[in-house]
Design goal:
Blueprint: H1 10-13, H2 17-40, H3 48-51, E1 62-67, H4 76-79, E2 83-84, E3 87-98, E4 102-103, H5 107-116, E5 120-126, H6 133-143, E6 154-156, H7 166-184, E7 189-193, H8 194-200, E8 211-214, E9 229-236, E10 245-250, H9 254-260
Helix pairs in contact: 6-7
Length: 289
């Protein structure tokens, strides 16, 4: 018995088959483009599965890492002897807080052990879009006791609330920076990825802050502004850490890095927070989380 070819639905049978194949190809191309534009590109520095093994940029001597609870329990005896492309690990930046309620579960242990094992240490806060910058700054200050010789506090800025204007968003970021700077008497470091910096933080009011730029799987930094730190991969492995860890480089000498650290305190750190003035920090980022 001769098999009959499957019949197309009546609304498709009027078109030649080649047009249907072409339409299918176009749909697939559009889908891939949309996926890249809306999901990969905005946070492309995090797509390890797409970009593969880490790169180790040449020409930099001062290497470090950043960690959180995602690295689990760290074997600090092994980590303190680890080498990154022939250079020792000099600094460790540790996630401390997020929003106005969350403290990283491993922060206190990691923060203490980093100093015990001779690393220059730092602490970062992830700016949540769900609570005000003022409440988040005060929360960070209440949970993080930075000391002389530590890196300046770090603000991780990766998301802008969709319904907030760029101007209001910048005001929120400045609110956090000003409050925390007043506390520690040193300019905080801003962490972000280079496309986000160009889109939302290209304002002269941010020019005086040290930048930590995330840009993965490239041989050189493509961000053309001034920067101090470069997070160049999230796919590295080091002794003492199970799984992947982020690698960072400092753009300068070890002497320069030491000059960036928190100096001896000669101010009253116990000044009440409500004496701090900010340009206009009344913007509401949403319900407090």
């Amino acid at each position: 018995m001769t098999k009959q070819r499957p019949q197309l639905p009546s609304f498709l049978s009027r078109w030649p088959r080649w047009t249907l194949w072409l339409s299918g190809v176009v749909i697939v191309v559009l889908y891939v483009w949309a996926f890249d534009a809306f999901f990969v590109s905005p946070t492309g520095f995090r797509w390890r599965a797409i970009y593969g093994d880490p790169h180790y940029p040449d020409g930099y001597e001062i290497r470090g890492i950043d960690i959180s609870h995602h690295q689990g329990t760290i074997n600090w005896d092994r980590l303190r002897n680890a080498m990154i492309n022939g250079s020792p690990v000099r600094f460790v930046i540790i996630k401390a807080t997020e929003g106005n309620k969350y403290v990283d579960e491993n922060f206190e242990q990691n923060f203490a052990l980093a100093k015990e094992n001779g690393f220059i240490r730092g602490a970062y806060h992830y700016l949540s879009p769900n609570s005000s910058a003022r409440s988040q700054a005060n929360f960070f200050i209440s949970k993080v006791n930075l000391e002389e010789g530590d890196l300046p506090p770090v603000l991780d800025v990766e998301r802008k609330p969709q319904k907030m204007s760029i101007e209001d968003f910048q005001r929120e970021v400045l609110t956090w920076l000003h409050i925390v700077e007043n506390k520690y008497q040193v300019k905080p470091i801003i962490y972000t990825y280079y496309k986000f910096k160009d889109l939302y933080l290209s304002d002269e009011r941010f020019d005086g802050y040290p930048y930590w730029i995330a840009h993965y799987y490239v041989d050189k930094m493509e961000y053309r502004g001034q920067w101090k730190f470069w997070q160049h991969t999230d796919a590295a492995r080091l002794p003492g850490i199970n799984g992947y860890v982020d690698l960072d480089i400092y753009n300068g000498s070890f002497y320069d890095l030491k000059q960036l650290l928190i100096p001896p305190s000669d101010v009253n750190d116990d000044a009440p927070l409500d004496t701090i003035t900010v340009e206009d920090d009344s913007i509401d980022m949403g319900d407090d989380d």
